[in-house]
Specification:
globular, 413 residues, alpha+beta, Butyryl-CoA Dehydrogenase, subunit A, domain 3, Butyryl-CoA Dehydrogenase, subunit A, domain 2, 12 strands, single chain
């Protein structure tokens, strides 16, 4: 729980003078949520329900999932049955119709139980489902969203390529319209859920002469001729969340599989990533919270020099810093989620929350290992897994360096 007294009075507005600027994305006014709207009873109920399920069904498998690099598809199917895979999708398309704060809470609690499951969960919703919900045609929504929400389908989103990571505008994958079909050629890399995805959202260049304005997005179904998984990655952490390359060799898809209009893909990607950063921030927060919980418990039980190590001031200082930084990250994250729920742009706040939460998670997990001492370095304890899992949050959905650039742009620089 967050140490903030909830009241129903006053919305604080902080005006920040940024100077004269003709940059359309510069920030001149910063919205701060009313404390009364922070978390309501529905949010608390969702947290309790998902925490109960994650503690009973997900957490006990986390070690085995990591050690065997096994995607826990059974958990995914159950999350679908319980309605969590469609949490932010409207009931019209088979979802739960919950707000973004509810979704962030779910990612945090699942990530707290198992980083791998949390990553695949966030990728399925933020990347594999939400773009269809936001930009798809009515026919596409009715065809895919109910199955994605129920867990019958697993989704993935493919932007990154072997030579294009942070430089997402430089797409090598092409899509050429030939008659009533598009023909896709190229390779995507580091795609979460790729091995098990039933549908993939693909970014491809339809008009190279237009640069980023020539990028379009498509939905491609598993089993389409010319579309296959070409390489499965072995990773430092998040091993139970499959990451693989996708290859297209003269892959023909109906032109109806175009999402939106030609040339809208890059804009769609930016919107997708803006929301997705909150889910990665929530995932980092969950992993960091798990590491803090483990460190606190260990500090109370482990004895040295005749007393629990938690009685030593150095360990107390570590734990105090960990708790404080996690609380700050949680406030930033939920503030950004509140803004999104109120249809406000979260380019600045989302980047700040993702940057801060991911770096805090790595710091907290590192201290967790330190507090465990030698036990923190062996696989019998979860501390080392937390540290390995947390690192990805500083890389995925925009590296920390990219987040800092985005934040600087929002400051008018």
């Amino acid at each position: 729980m967050i140490g903030v007294k909830i009241c129903n009075e006053n919305c604080i507005r902080l005006r920040v003078y940024m100077g004269e600027s003709d940059v359309s994305t510069s920030v001149t006014e910063h919205d701060v949520m009313p404390f009364g709207e922070f978390l309501n009873e529905e949010h608390q109920a969702i947290r309790e329900a998902i925490r109960d399920y994650a503690t009973r069904e997900i957490a006990p498998k986390a070690h085995e999932v990591d050690q065997n690099a096994r995607f826990p598809i059974e958990n995914f199917k159950e999350l679908g049955k319980l309605g969590y895979l469609g949490l932010p999708i409207s009931a019209e398309y088979g979802g739960a119709g919950a707000d973004y704060r509810s979704y962030v809470i779910a990612v945090e609690e699942i990530g707290r139980a198992c980083g791998s499951t949390g990553l695949s969960y966030a990728a399925h919703i933020s990347l594999g489902t939400n773009p269809l919900y936001l930009f798809g045609s009515e026919e596409q929504k009715k065809k895919y969203l109910p199955k994605l929400c129920s867990g019958e389908y697993i989704g993935c989103w493919a932007l990154t390529e072997p030579g294009t990571g942070s430089d997402a505008a430089t797409q090598k994958t092409t899509a050429k319209l030939v008659g009533d079909h598009y023909v896709l050629n190229g390779t995507k890399q580091f795609i979460t859920n790729a091995t098990d995805a039933d549908v993939a959202i693909i970014m491809a260049m339809t008009d190279k002469s237009q640069g980023r304005k020539g990028i379009s997005s498509f939905v491609v179904e598993k089993g389409t001729p010319g579309f296959f998984v070409s390489k499965v990655e072995k990773k430092l952490g998040m091993r139970g969340s499959p990451t693989a390359s996708l290859t297209f060799e003269d892959c023909k898809i109906p032109k109806e599989n175009l999402i939106g209009q030609e040339g809208e893909g890059y804009r769609q990607a930016l919107t997708t990533l803006e929301g997705g950063r909150l889910s990665i921030g929530a995932l980092a927060l969950g992993i960091g919270q798990a590491a803090f919980d483990a460190a606190l418990s260990y500090a109370k039980q482990r004895e040295a020099f005749g007393q629990p190590i938690g009685k030593f001031q150095m360990i107390q200082a570590y734990l105090a810093d960990m708790a404080t930084q996690l609380s700050a990250a949680r406030l930033m994250l939920y503030h950004a989620a509140w803004m999104k729920d109120h249809h406000k742009r979260v380019t600045l706040e989302g980047s700040q929350a993702k940057l801060f939460a991911s770096e805090v998670a790595s710091k907290v997990c590192n201290l967790c290992v330190q507090i465990h001492g030698g036990y923190g370095y062996i696989v019998d304890f979860p501390a080392e897994r937390f540290l390995r899992d947390a690192k990805l949050c500083e890389i995925g959905e925009g590296t920390s360096e990219i987040q800092r650039l985005l934040i600087a742009r929002q400051l008018g620089l």
